[in-house]
């Protein structure tokens, strides 16, 4: 049995959950999210609590039960509070700027790299080296942060590059010039 899937999902005030067949729509003060649920999973909404159940007992469907519960919980948290990821740029002369939905990165290449942000993700740059990404969709936010990090991954010798705020880079020892 899925331990995560068994847990009920509380729906906070100000969040509306609508179920049309297998399409779940969650609306809150930050926006609206929709997701299709596979047909082997049953969603029950009672008294501001959502329960996720299996229609068929199998280990595969049990895994989807836990996944579905987590996805619905992330939708509810996203429309109520939103999600935030912070990227840090390290390196001499490395900097970022944002204008509209275009993120411009100067990270050691001969020309600046431009990244077009998805429409549901907003970015702000603090002090030229800290990129704060915000969205109501946790999946899209993580994918966007990952793609930005791929532009210049942190290298293991000096740690230069783009990394997550809480990421620890294990540094390697360089060559030693012994004779």
Folded structure, characterized:
The structure is a single chain. With 179 residues, this protein is of the alpha+beta class. It is built from 3 helices and 13 strands, in the order H-E-E-E-E-E-E-H-E-E-E-E-E-E-H-E. Strand 11 (122-126) and strand 12 form a beta hairpin.
Concise description?
The chain is an alpha+beta fold and 179 residues long. It has 3 helices and 13 strands; from the N terminus they run αββββββαββββββαβ.
Give the secondary structure arrangement, pairings included.
Blueprint: H1 3-6, E1 9-10, E2 16-20, E3 23-27, E4 32-36, E5 41-46, E6 49-54, H2 59-80, E7 83-90, E8 95-99, E9 102-106, E10 113-116, E11 122-126, E12 130-135, H3 138-151, E13 161-164
List keywords for this structure.
2 domains, alpha+beta, 4-stranded antiparallel beta sheet, 13 strands, 179 residues, Outer Surface Protein A, domain 3
Radius of gyration: 21 Å
Shape from CA axes?
A: elongated
User: In the CATH hierarchy, what is the class of the largest domain?
Assistant: Alpha Beta
Q: How many β-strands, per DSSP?
A: 13
CATH architecture of the largest domain: Alpha-Beta Complex
Domains counted in the coordinates: how many?
Answer: 2
Whole-Å distance between the termini? 62 Å
**Could you list the spans in which at least 5 consecutive residues all have pLDDT below 50?**
none
CATH topology of the largest domain: Outer Surface Protein A, domain 3
> Averaging pLDDT over every residue, what do you get?
92
> So how many helices?
3
Strand content: 35-45%
Share of residues in helices: 10-25%
